[in-house]
Amino acid sequence: MKVNDESHLKTRLTLRQQRPFSNDRLLFGRSSAPLNDYPDYSELLFTLSQTFGFVRWRGDGYDTQTWRVVVAQAGRPGERLTRIPGVSPGAHLLLHTFGKARAKRALRAIDMLSDHHVLHEIAPAYWRHVHVQIARNAPLEPYDAEAFAAMARARLVS
Description:
By secondary structure, the protein is of the alpha+beta class. The chain has helices at residues 100-114, 124-136, 145-157; strands at residues 11-18, 22-28, 33-37, 41-46, 51-59, 65-74, 82-84, 87-98.
């Protein structure tokens, strides 16, 4: 009997919780369904083209810490995807910060955006802008949903 399971068409995000060595958490995004939820990790599924963000923290017994903030978009079958640890089979990488200072700056930007916008509905191009501005240590331009929607329509026409 063939089961109609379309989970292979979705992007799987694995978040680990093994304190004091790892602490991952979902920042935003609507999981289509929690796949597994265990005490030390959880798995979430995201539908095609859905945007999601998460933070990945790692530490050791010597106070060494690594911080990552990732915003990604679930890909479609056949597309070129970026391999991201904990994301299977991969996704379109929109924002990636590494290191405590840049990760904190990304988290502040996400907090400010969440005051006025639904984060998973923000245009992928804007998340790329946030990535570039954080990498350059430059100020962010405010998000204008209408302007980014117009740019997306223009790209479809050309």
